[in-house]
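Handout, section 4.2: multi-component inputs.
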Amino acid sequence: MKDKKVPLLEMRNISKDFSGNQVLNDINFSIEKGEILGLVGENGAGKSTLMKILFGMDEIRDTGGYGGKVIIKGKEVNFTSPQDALEKGVGMVHQEFSLLPDFSAAENIVLNREPIKYSIVSELFGDRMHTLNREEIDAIAKVAINRLGINLDITMKVSSMPVGHKQFTEIARELSKDVLGETNPIELLVLDEPTAVLSEKEADSLLIAMRKLSEQGISMIFISHRLNEIIDVCDTMMVMRDGLIIKHIPIDGVKVQDIARWMVGREVSNKAKPRKFDYNNIETILDIKNLWVDMPGETARDISLEVKKGEILGIGGMAGQGKLGIPNGVMGLYTAGGTVFFEGSELKLNDPRALLDAGLAFVSEDRRGVGLLLDESLEWNIAFTAMQVQDKYLKKYLKGFMTWRDSKAIEKVTHEYIDQLEIKCTSSKQKAKELSGGNQQKICLAKAFALEPKLLFVSEPTRGIDIGAKSLVLNALRKYNRELGTTIVIISSELEELRAISDRIAIVTDGRIEGILEASKPSEDFGLLMIGQKVEEAI
Amino acid sequence: MENIKLADKIKSFAHDFGWPRIIIALFLLSLFIMAPFVGVNINTSLSDTFNRFGMNCIMVLAMVPMIHSGCGLNFGLPLGIIAGLLGATLSLEFNFVGGQSFLMAMAFATPFAVLFGWAYGKLLNRVKGGEMMIATYVGFSSVAFMCMMWLLLPFTNPTMVWGYTGKGLRTTISTEGYYLHVLNDFLAIRIGEHFVFPTGMVLFFAVFALGIWAFLHSKKGTAMTAVGSNSVFARASGIDIDKTRILSVILSTWLGAMGILVYQQSFGFIQLYMGPFFMALPAVSAILIGGASVNKASITNVIVGTFLFQGILTMTPSVMNSVIQTDMSEVIRIVVSNGMILYALTRKTEATR
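Output:
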């Protein structure tokens, strides 16, 4: 690997920003022929953006292109589409399958590139009357599958296959493209979390297939959250975080713990002094017992969690593990079951009104879908929930029979929050959809603050907003907690953000609380919890 | 400097009011200007326009609550109209006369409107996202069902039933002697021989419009608007979406019932059987022309839209008829009204506030 040959792929000084938000910063790396490179990083670290740049996706071009060079075998390339990349020998295996369920494996492998036979009818009616050359289709499919070194019945319909076989079919399709000779031979394959949906056994046979391809001289970039697989199969590994390459080293001797630390471990400067709580002696404000939440993609299975009065509790974990299910379930937005006690009395689940009445509030991760009335003014957005739940900002006539929106009071409170949270807008009558993401998030916070809740759920408060707004939002939350004593439960995919603001952090894995640690614990402990490896619990 | 400011003002007015409305208004104005030259009496035309405006605007107002709660345009207006018809026929059956018969018709219609609206709302809650298509067929099928019922219900008032059998209601029943023109003539302003301003009817509408406007400023009304604007947001704010929607449907249905009574007292006839069948589309078109969209509507949209729609509908046939010198008024009326409906429905995504 270390010889001075020209590398197969080299990405030099790659940088990319989305409207001022730097997501990739001076990325440099190269891959040799036959090398398997493991690429790991938290969600949002920049992995997928990097791959999109490699394949020349429209998304990159539409947002202003990228900086730097992509060099393949010493020549600079600039792919215009994944098809273009494929023709030059760079293929991609997707996480989601793009297969036709009612076609056989062989038919899917050669789809849209079927070898055809000349028939007499086509003389009359043109090329459309050519017939399929079944023998050749099967032959091509067999060659492609043999290269993977696996057993796969090529006549089996995709719909009746186990997931693992679908994954192999998908890979075989990429490989078959050079069998037909219509593209350059495949030299580089990108596998984007191919094992995420596979059982352990299926994943193992995929790893074996990958090694076999590597022996044939095909290089691979392997993206996975399963760190053990990375260690098992890769030659080198690369850790990305915040748009930077943190580590790029040969895999020999690397331990899972190391990778976990590299993935999450960055110290944040604006960290507040950790507070010391005597957790055994303070009152529990929210006691969740065996909560399940049916939220698609974020199913919580069996959550038991005690939230102490006055603390900021962080809930972290990988995407899709169920951490978002917790606030959405407790607040009644998705069907939930189990028991939840708030200040000693049991809450009625699946009834948002009862939960708001009890003194809970929620800032949703889905700002545009749940958090805002996009077509209404900022005044409405901030005042609406407090008006409906607590009869604030209303004038009452005839002993409360007639109510009237008190537009002066609404305007006043809106201006207060605009000043307090530094919301950038032209007026309090501006429509919410016209604000930027960060300012929309502040509106969502203001809406929750206006309720003066006893406990506030904040879900992904910094997703998709720039760094300046991020620290403002976090500071506002911290200030609210310190000054009014409001208990805050903050859910975020960014562990460092949680460590900066929380007192304790719970990590959710596979719909269960994997462990709760004090925020000051070293980051690799959290990293291990995220990948489902227990450490001894601190609290 | 002054000129620039004025130009800006005009521009912003045009933007707020919306180009389609300005163009239609200019067309209507040109019809009024043309009218005297082709021998159409302008006073009669104006009088007709105001009259038609008063007759129809409560039915257009009936669109507003459902639009606000996100149930879309009330294509099921015939259901409300049927409630109104039941009120009207019951009032006549019990032989109330004069202004009293109108009040009693309103009183009899209300429970039917609430009941129908509640059931209609329940149904619409089951078909979220497809409300308008379902609403259309709710309207159509309720008309068909009532076609049977009008024959079977045991009404006996001789002014209403078929003369030769003594049972089953007639297709049209005169309101003369009952509540014909009770609102039209109330405080009516007569100018010259041909112009009458139907003050009572317009006032009656004003009361309803004010009521709806006030309702939309109340806590419940605010919730209704929020449900239409983003129902998930409203749910997260503790609003019972289904109940709010049902309330809006009941309101819309009730307004439809009141609307038809106003229409009858001016028109002079209660039209049963297929009468309500085609009432929804003109009302829908009027509010769309007024600048409403599928989920945003205001009282201004109702007033502007009804005036423009009914104005064009009154003026085009009479002016065109006089221009081409043959009696084609009915043909022209159908062409124009369906043309306006077609135009309005193509605009249904655009909204101005």
